Structures are given as structure tokens and as C-alpha cells.
Amino acid sequence: MRNKKILICDDDRDILEMLEIILEDSGLDTFTEPDSTILVDRIEENMPDLLLMDLWMPVITGDEILKTLRSNDGIKNLPVIIMSAAQDGKLIATEAGADDYISKPFDIDVLIAKVKALIQ
């Protein structure tokens, strides 16, 4: 599972840090980006194997970013898991083109299983 890179994007730095620890402890390489405005550039520069992203972020929301990714030939097939505490988060994530969805607060085992399933 090493050498699989997971990019985590959330404007909450505590959540970023927690997710980074959880996924690294599961044998995955991670890097984080709290700023959604530069996320597409970070993806193109680093070509992660999966994007784990919050839905509600300031400036550019997760669903807007996802629509941008899906229209970009170079990165449109990047697996994306959207996270949200919103009641309609799953519907919004699915309509935007997410590969999977995790509701906050999330079960760590479910999170790890979903991430690993998409990067196999």
C-alpha cells in the first residue's frame, strides 16, 4: 500500500492533522492542502492516487472543485471521496461526480476501508 499518495483537503486544520495520522498509520502516504483555491494546481503537480476532500470549504466548495476536476482530461479519473456533515452532502457529492462519500463524524474503519477500496 506504500507509495499510494492520498491528498487530503479540508479547511479545518485539526481534521487535516487527524486524517493524516489515521491514514499514515494505515500505511498510506498523505499530503494535505487546507486552501481549496490552489487544490487543482496541487493535484496536477503531485498526481495523488486519491483525493479526500471536505464538501463545505470557504471560497471554492468541494462540489465546485470536483466539477472542475471531472472536466479536466489530465485528472478527471482521479478517485475522490467527499466528506461532509451536511444532511444533503451525499446527494451533492454524487451529483458532482464523487466516487464515494463519508459523513462527518466518520467511523475510522469505514474511512480506511473506503480509501483502500478506491486505490487498489
From TrEMBL:
It holds the Pfam family Response_reg. This is Response regulator. SMART domains: REC. Residues 5-119 form the Response regulatory domain. It comes from the Bacteria. The keyword Phosphoprotein applies. The modification 4-aspartylphosphate is found at D54. Keywords: Phosphoprotein. GO terms for biological process: phosphorelay signal transduction system. The keyword Phosphoprotein applies. It comes from Pedobacter miscanthi. InterPro entries: Bact_response_regulator, CheY-like_superfamily, Sig_transdc_resp-reg_receiver. Coiled coil: none annotated.
